[in-house]
UniProtKB/TrEMBL annotation:
Transmembrane segments: none annotated. This is C-type cytochrome. The keyword Magnesium does not apply. Gene3D superfamilies: Cytochrome c-like domain. The keyword Transcription does not apply.
Length: 118
């Protein structure tokens, strides 16, 4: 009960949570593997809380592919967009087995959301 009340109060004050912290519809397909819980629990994929600006493959407690750990990419907007469009294109050998999000508008919404998760 308490968390719901807290959320409502938070929404009512209008800040500091920007609208972008609401997941876009396209994030539904990511949730099967990714949590965005600030507590940091990972699932099949690493937890994505505060991923924006971080170096790829560095979330503590998650077993990344050797390719992701070796990539040393920084998750800025351009790299996130490229990874979501074609995971294996940006990080050959990644174990994120998804076909990629072909719609640029959906990718932008996803990147906005990921960058706002802080
Ligand atoms: C079938 C499961 C699965 C789905 C669906 C999936 N991912 Fe992933 N994702 C993974 C795995 C596994 C990794 C770790 C890749 C590696 O270590 O090579 C990963 C890694 C990532 C990373 C890098 C995180 C880091 O800490 O470096 C990002 C960002 C990411 N995914 C975003 C997304 C987004 C956004 C979606 C939805 C469009 C999505 N993923 C859908 C499994 C998935």
């Amino acid at each position: 009960m308490a968390p719901l009340v807290g959320l409502a109060a938070h929404a009512a004050t209008g800040s500091p949570a920007p609208a972008a912290t609401q997941p876009p519809a396209a994030f539904a397909q990511c949730k099967a593997c990714h949590s965005v819980d600030p507590g940091g629990k990972s699932g099949i994929g690493p937890n994505l809380f505060a991923v924006g600006g971080k170096i790829a493959g560095t979330k503590p407690g998650y077993a990344y592919s050797p390719a992701m750990k070796a990539s040393r990419k920084r998750w800025d907007r351009a790299n996130l967009d490229a990874y979501l469009a074609n995971p294996k294109g940006l990080v050959p050998g990644t174990k994120m087995m998804t076909p990629g999000v072909s719609d640029a508008k959906k990718r932008k919404e996803l990147v906005d959301y990921l960058m706002a998760l802080n």
